[in-house]
Amino acid sequence: ASADVTVYVGPNTPNVLSIGSWEDKIKLILKLFSGFRAPKTAKVVVYNFEDRDWAYSKFLSIPENPPGFEQLVNLRCPSPGSCGGGNMGMSPTGDVSVGRIGIPIVASDSSFTTGGLALHEFTHAVQTAQFYNGDDANDPTRDFTNLVPCWLIEGQAEFSAVSVPYGNVAE
Fold it and tell me: Fewer Cβ within 10 Å of end Cβ, the chain: N or C?
């Protein structure tokens, strides 16, 4: 499986990765889950506190942006020290995943330096893609969290985050 991967990095957001690129991380997840349905396109916005306005505008410019997803920019990045974490949403058709990666002022945690956070979030996109059935916005399987236990959803994403950054899970 392959996807068209676009990563937008804020103009004031430093590169915190110690290995590879954000695009490389998403491609590694696709390699791990080859043979499974996955989004055909991934668009990820990486930003820090100083770039919040830029990130908000960037989300609004992405046509596949899930409704209201841009609201997470300020909600999950209220101050320089507590800007962090990520989220992954899906377009209504399930073909495009849209992600958010907030970078804190001190990003020494391995989830940032190895790209583990991006791996974790894109794993959720692959998980979600398994349950999409066409483009029916009212399909109850769209929210697969009602169908699969949380420990499995988050456990699989964490496995990806800690094991895939180095690229040799399947090699």
Answer: C
pLDDT attached to residue 40: 87
Spell out the long-range contacts of 65-69 with Cβ–Cβ below 8 A and sequence spacing 24 or more.
65/89, 65/91, 65/98, 66/90, 66/91, 66/92, 66/98, 69/98, 69/100
Tell me how far apart the alpha carbons of residues 165 and 26 are, in angstroms, rounded to a whole number: 10
Per-residue pLDDT tens for 22-52?
Answer: 888 888 888 888 888 888 889 999 999 999 9
pLDDT the model gives residue 45: 93
Degrees, nearest 5: CA angle 102-16-19: 125
Buried b (16+ CB within 10 A) or exposed e, 58-87: bbeebebbbeebbebbeebbeeeeebbbbb
